[in-house]
Design goal:
Structural class: alpha/beta
Bound molecules: nicotinamide-adenine-dinucleotide
Order of helices and strands: EHEHEHEHEHHE
Oligomer: single chain
Strand order of the largest sheet: 3-4-5-6
Number of strands: 6
CATH superfamily: NAD(P)-binding Rossmann-like Domain
């Protein structure tokens, strides 16, 4: 919004609106942001939302595929590797990979018809490297906390899907890139944060503001000749 965009968000039905989103709605630019409800796995709803967006705002210039699921440490997420349920893996792929693909199909097609646009998929450092399980050993759960194996795999698949879409829609003037954040500072426990920061060449976790410049770069004509690439915003985590 600070870069002048009108922003239409899509999030799952029934969830409360975050404080950050409410603050944006109440800001002076609040008439340039709205939230629609839908599931990236629900094609029928997405088609309806697409038609609504086209009618109300026209063809999008930028599509950001941000919806994603992970499993933070907690009692429900401790497994022996050999016991990770099929359904957990399937759901992660459905949302993180197939959901992003479906949104790109539905919102990207009119962009391609219009001959312009930028699609930005949100990946993850774990699309490039495996999680270091030593970061979680202090949690002392038995069986241990496992970062879902499907999470990184789903983001690696999204990176390759990005290259597919970039080559497919390049001739139509639609650029497709993937922005892969490192660990973003949130409600992680202190020991985790310390261990994680020790592992980052820049010595800290990402702040949300660290992601803004790279996102605006990929969204704007500043990256007019950039497509099919992964922009890692991870403080150097994956450089080691
Ligand atoms: N937080 C991090 O450290 C981090 C690091 C690397 C990558 N990422 C990626 O960044 C993106 C945002 O992550 P976040 O940490 O802000 O997570 P988050 O849980 O705060 O946000 C994800 C959003 O996606 C929505 N969502 C989930 N399933 C959906 C579905 N089926 N349909 C529509 N919306 C759905 C959720 O409701 C939520 O609003 C994700 O793709 C995540 O994988 C996050």
């Amino acid at each position: 919004m600070n870069a002048g965009a009108t922003v239409v968000g899509i999030d799952l039905p029934g969830l409360s609106i975050s404080e950050a989103f409410q603050a944006l709605q109440l800001s002076p630019e609040g008439d340039r942001i709205c939230l629609l409800r839908g599931d990236v796995c629900d094609r029928t709803t997405l088609l309806t939302l697409r038609d609504q967006c086209l009618k109300d705002y026209g063809i999008p210039d930028v599509l950001v595929n941000n919806a994603g699921i992970d499993q933070p440490p907690g009692p429900a997420t401790t497994y022996r590797l050999e016991d990770v349920p099929w359904e957990v893996c399937q759901k992660v792929f459905e949302v993180n990979t197939l959901g992003a693909f479906q949104v790109a199909q539905i919102f990207g097609a009119p962009m391609a018809e219009a001959g312009r646009g930028s699609i930005i998929n949100i990946g993850s450092l774990y699309g490039s490297v495996s999680p270091d399980k030593r970061l979680y050993e202090h949690l002392k759960a038995d069986p241990p906390f496992l970062k879902p194996p499907a999470y990184g795999a789903s983001k690696a698949a999204l990176a390759n899907l990005t290259r597919y879409l970039a080559t497919h829609w390049g001739p139509s003037g639609v650029r497709v890139n993937i922005l892969s954040p490192g660990g973003v500072l949130g409600r992680q426990d202190e020991t985790f944060k310390q261990k994680f920061c020790d592992r980052v060449p820049l010595g800290r976790m990402a702040n949300l503001s660290d992601l803004v410049g790279p996102l605006v770069f990929l969204a704007s004509d500043a990256s007019a000749y950039v497509t099919g690439t992964e922009l890692k915003v991870d403080g150097g985590f994956t450089a080691w």
